[in-house]
Write a structure and sequence with these properties.
Number of helices: 13
Largest sheet: 9 strands, mixed
Bound molecules: pyridoxal-5'-phosphate
CATH class of one domain: Alpha Beta
CATH topology of one domain: TIM Barrel
Helix content: 25-40%
Radius of gyration: 24 Å
CATH superfamily of one domain: Alanine racemase
GO molecular function: carboxy-lyase activity
Pfam families: Orn_Arg_deC_N (PF02784)
Structural class: alpha/beta
Order of helices and strands: EHEHEHEHEHEHEHEHEHEHEEEEEEEHHH
Oligomer: single chain
Number of strands: 17
Protein name: Antizyme inhibitor 2
Keywords: Polyamine biosynthesis, Pyridoxal phosphate
GO cellular component, one term: cytoplasm
Amino acid sequence: MNGYLNESNFMMVEEGFTTRDLLENVLVELCQASNQQAFFVADLGDIVKKHLCFLKALPRVKPYFPVKCNSSEGVIRLLAELGAGFACTNKVEIARVQNIGVPADKIFYSSPCKQVAHIKYAASHGVQLMTFDNEVELSKVARSHPRARMLLGIAADSSPSAHPSMAFGTTLESCRHLLETAKEQAVEVVGISFHLGSRGLEPQAFARAVAAAQLAFDVGTELGYQMRLLDIGGGFPGTEDTRAPFEEMAAMINSALDLYFPDGCGVEIVARPGRYYVTSAFTFAASITAMEEVPTEQPGSDEEDSGSKKSLVYHLSDGIHGTFSCLLFDSPCPSPQLHKRPCPDHPSHSSSLRGPPGHVEDHIADGLELPELQVGDWLIFKDMGAYTIASSAPLGGCPQPQITYAMSRVAWKAVQLFLGKPPAAEDDRETLCAPLSCGWETAEAPCITPALAPASII
Ligand SMILES: Cc1ncc(COP(=O)(O)O)c(C=O)c1O
């Protein structure tokens, strides 16, 4: 084991139950303490599964998890334990992973726009791998970090589905000029990077981007650089209901890599999968703290009748400056489940969810059809692991929700097998478990040599 994660970092749970069961347990405790604070439950076993699937589907690609996507301690510890690297966008994120013990060579300072103070921080903490896509960034790094190893960021996809706000990356036409400027400033360029955005990516976009990256590699090599690293960014789906499933994207990436960067060509491939790893592992619960009724006019209805149909606005203790900041990162509008089962004969109303009262423009969701709820009722949001947990204190004064981490014994055994450590003996394990589970689907990890474990248990 690598020592980043141990059994005290999470609750060991039994098979047969789900994250929802765990959530119910937390809710009982909170209700007993009259506590209405929003909270998460996180199934670390789900992240283990994702990691093993990633390695199986993209065997040549090393994942660097973007810390801005979820900087919670359990996630960072687990991914460090599994050997993943980390992509950081500022010094707070670098410090976060280094405080857990992650070595500098597993950290990629991936932000295209960096503050000079943060570049200096990276330099003094041994973080060398960085990106640039314009001359201003280049000269900042040339002045502040002489040992940086740079990746040139290219805007590789010009298709209509490309994210309109993705300003990251230079054009292929500008590559030569930027690489020549880097040469003049004695900056070491080691490869090419792209990030295609995260909104409903087509698998073909990756193939086009890998092809474009190869052209940029050629320019670098021509200018005398040793080009040995390709970063294919993030954008892999975090749930299964997306237009292109992860496996389809992976198949397309593998064939593009085989064509443009064949095995043995000396180029290492990395990616920055964020939402892929964490979305489905986290479930969020928030209670209603206030509500307002907005009468709606019914077209054609008479005066007396017009009050019977209403719209309801519910305020939660958390909003888009806190957990729901995921809405700013292209995550779909969350549909809550009700904690209490509604009476089937109660009418539903057009309902909206808002952040804490007084926070103007804190719109979480509109147009939901919900039965009438009360202050103190709980709403449950699934798939809330990505872009919901910040590395610094959230804006707007929302307190950070508590996170309860759990992992099933089978998933923990899989981690141990993956890392080449034989799992604990049967008797020792019995004492570690609470009678719950987060639903690891495999019955038992097979008894096989550690080297084969990842591919075999998924
Ligand atoms: C530059 C960059 N890389 C990687 C990611 C990760 O994207 P995702 O979470 O969709 O994998 C993001 C997300 O915003 C990003 O901006």
